Amino acid sequence: MGTSVNILLQKALEVRSKAYAPYSSYSVGCALLDDQDGVHVACNVENAAFPLGSCAEANAVGAMVASGATRICTLVIVGGFSSLEHCQPCGGCRQRIQEFADADTRVLLLNDSGELDAYSMEELLPNSFSLDPPTSG
Ligand code: THU
To answer: Pairing relation of β-strands 29-34 and 72-78?
Structure first.
């Protein structure tokens, strides 16, 4: 127990260096902590057939599910072309993260200046799609 945010930041930076992004040159790293204290990391993986490329977040969520965990406590994304840019998760990845998030889940964006922005899922994806019936009241 007790995986710190600093460890997640370090792991996201490490895995970003493994990104396969020869077409965009935009490297992204993602590290997430699940509710069993498991840490899962992934980078983006592009493909010559462009639509087949996959985002770092999608790959990290897939690794978490493959390990048997289904709740995200904290998810770190590191990327960006300039040192001041925070890589915002794309729309599809917001929905992918939302699937395994709750009100306490925090998404942290790290830029190359070491600045951290923190978001809840309600901030990243308000009024999100769900198959759950609406609650009354
Ligand atoms: N990318 C991610 O890995 N995550 C995002 O949330 C946004 C975009 C990747 C996909 C592609 O390999 C590159 O960044 C440029 O779009």
So the answer is: antiparallel
Tell me the per-residue pLDDT of 104-132, one tens digit each, with 9 for 90 and over: 999 999 999 999 999 999 999 999 999 98
| Domain architecture of the chain: domains with CATH | 5-124 (3.40.140.10)
Question: Does 57 participate in catalysis according to the annotation?
Answer: yes
Residue nearest to atom 10 of ligand 1 (CA): 55
Cα 84 to averaged position of ligand 1 atoms, centre (Å): 17
* CA–CA gap between residue 58 and residue 95 (Å, rounded): 10
Give yes or no for residue 89 CB within 6 A of ligand 1. Answer: yes
Write down the pTM of the prediction: 0.95
Angle between helices 91-98 and 56-67 (to 10 degrees): 20
